[in-house]
Amino acid sequence: MADTITLDVTRYHPDKDSEPTSQSYEVPYHADWVVLDALNYVKDQLDGSLTFRWSCRMGVCGSCGMMVNGMPKLSCAIPLSDYMPGPIRIEPLQYFPVMRDLVVDITEFLHKLQKVQPWIIRDEDKPLAEGEHLQTPAELDLYKQFSMCINCMLCYSACPVVGLEPEFAGPAAIALAQRYNLDSRDQGSAERLEALDDHEGMWGCTFVGECTKVCPKNVDPAGAIQLYKVASTKDWFKSVLLPWSSK
Amino acid sequence: MNSMAPATFNRPKMYRRPMPLLWWLQNRAYFRFVVRELTSIFVGFFAVLTIWQARALAEGPDAYASFMDRLSTPGFAILNGVSLAFVLYHAITWFNLAPTAIVVRVGETRVPDWIIAGANYAACVALSAAVAWILLRG
Fold first, then answer.
1. Gap between the Cα atoms of A179 and A185, Å rounded
2. Which of A36, A37, A191, B19 has the greatest count of CB atoms below 10 A from its CB?
3. Looking at chain B from residue 31 to 50, which residues have their Cβ under 8 Å from any Cβ of chain A?
4. Distance of alpha carbon A82 from alpha carbon B130, whole angstroms
């Protein structure tokens, strides 16, 4: 086994470059390293100007997402050994504006998250004296999977609709809306539907399904979006066929 | 946003890579997805052909015989063969995706994916058999 591996890393300096370029670094190979360890070696030993985000190193914070050999990955969660003998192509998450090197701008993503009102909405707040909103394990099971999202944005980089239509709310945001819709304590599904019942919302999804495949937390955003479409269609039919019935 | 958005004090100039025209050749999954979407054209073709067939049937035996003659020309035979292949691809890919969009619970247990997909295949086979029986019974 070779004792080094080459990383081809995208570089972009906003004040100097008109577009990104690629730079190669040779790093030592260690069987117990992940790709993020190799990038940190570059940063610490070879080129301190290389810029990338990372934090927890254990697949929880969702900061270190990047394109690795063309696929969106959490660089802390993929062993270097998976890519031997190399080289490994490392690029910023695709479909996002690049700020510098491997760092992308997440402002639009944060706006999309906010648009779906990802919090529990109540018609009337329950007085604190009445205690908690109780929930059974079965009610928790309905949305738990969709609540595991860590906002790593890999699903956005896997979704060609995000690339083709930047206004599309995107997998994580719609899945998050569905997470709250399915929560027995929530009463805000009508408000979220208003925000997502159009081509920039759930109907923009063409069910490519790659968002679910790349999700490191098995959230299944594609599933959440299709369930949302089914629920929305049922509501529409109900409103047409039974206009007198309340939702 | 333009590919080169202007810089401001706290918002540096950013680069947005344009979406390549051949994005659907970027990986196999994208390619399979685009093929799946394009197969809709052949599903539509079969639908139009069926309506055309019904119209010929309504116009009487001569019109229907003429329609069937046209269908047996080599050009139509090839087109129908290709269309059948794409329609099968369309059906199989959507049947396999059905469990993602259909969640059925019995009590507190979610019905397994293979049962949902299997029910779609079973319904397809049953309906096809029923149509074949009607057409072929003599």
1. 11
2. A36
3. 33, 37
4. 51
Q: Is B41 within 8 Å of B82 (Cβ atoms)? A: no
pLDDT greater than 90 at residue B5:
no
| Residue ranges of domains in chain A, CATH in brackets | 4-104 (3.10.20.30), 107-241 (1.10.1060.10)
Residue A126 is classified by DSSP as P
Q: Which residue does chain B place closest to A100, by CA atoms?
A: B14
**CA closest to A223 among chain B residues:** B100
CA-closest candidate to residue A207, choices B40, B37, B39, B87: B37
Task: List Cβ neighbours of A163 (8 Å cut-off, separation of 6 or more).
Answer: A94, A95, B19, B23
Q: What is the reported pTM?
A: 0.88
Residues of chain A whose pLDDT is less than 70? Answer: 1-2, 246-247
Q: Is A73 in CB contact (< 8 Å) with chain B?
A: no
Q: pLDDT tens across A141-180, in order?
A: 999 999 999 999 999 999 999 999 999 999 999 999 999 9
Chain B positions in Cβ-Cβ contact with residue A20 (cut-off 8 Å) = 15, 17
Identify the CATH number of the domain in which residue B76 sits.
1.20.1300.10
Nearest 5°: phi and psi at B135? -75, -35
* Per-residue tokens: A229: 């479409």
Q: Is the pLDDT of residue B110 over 90?
A: no
CB contact under 8 A, A100 and B23: no
Q: Which two tokens stand for residue A29?
A: 């190979």
Q: Hey, of B11, B19, B24, B102, which one would you mutate to test binding to chain A, going by the most A CBs within 10 A of its CB?
A: B19
User: Strand (E) positions, chain A?
Assistant: 4-11, 21-28, 65-68, 71-74, 88-91, 98-100, 103-104
Burial profile B67-101: b = 16 or more Cβ within 10 angstroms, e = fewer: beeeeeeeeeeeebeebeebbebbeebebebbbbb
Number of domains in chain B: 1
Closest Cα to residue A148, out of A190, A123, A178, A191? A178
Give dist(CA A237, CA B4) in Å, integer: 45
